Amino acid sequence: MGLAIIHSRASVGVQAPSVSVEVHISNGMPGFTLVGLPETTVKESKDRVRSAIINSNFQFPAKRITVLRKINRNKIEL
């Protein structure tokens, strides 16, 4: 159905590396998948994203949603 790419910045200490977020919404079994995050972070992030959408008075779509988060780690030392 659609692909959206959002460019932003992350907060890592005093640095702000670039982050890309790709969201793909398609037909199929409704679901919400986050990719590109550590396993323990995924569950918390899914709940936060879902809550943010609903609390912003948007309707959470009954579609298959895949979110890919990519952080550019080339410019920072962790």
Describe the structure.
- With 78 residues, the chain is of the alpha+beta class.
- The protein has one domain.
- It is 22% helix and 38% strand.
- It has one helix and four strands.
- Strands 1-2-4-3 form a four-stranded mixed β-sheet, covered by helices on one side.
- Strand 1 and strand 2 form a beta hairpin.
- It is globular.
- It starts with a strand and ends in a 7-residue tail after the last strand.
- The relative contact order is 0.31.
- The mean pLDDT is 83.
- It holds the Pfam family ChlI.
β-strand amount: 35-45%
How many H/I helical runs?
A: 1
Oligomer: single chain
How does the overall form come out from the CA principal axes? globular
Structural class: alpha+beta
List how many beta strands DSSP finds. Answer: 4
**Contiguous runs where pLDDT drops below 50 for at least 5 residues:** none
Helices and strands in order, then pairings?
Layout: E1 2-9, E2 18-26, E3 31-35, H1 39-55, E4 64-71
Parallel strand pairs: 3-4
Antiparallel strand pairs: 1-2, 2-4
Pfam families: ChlI
InterPro entries: Ribosomal_Su5_D2-typ_SF
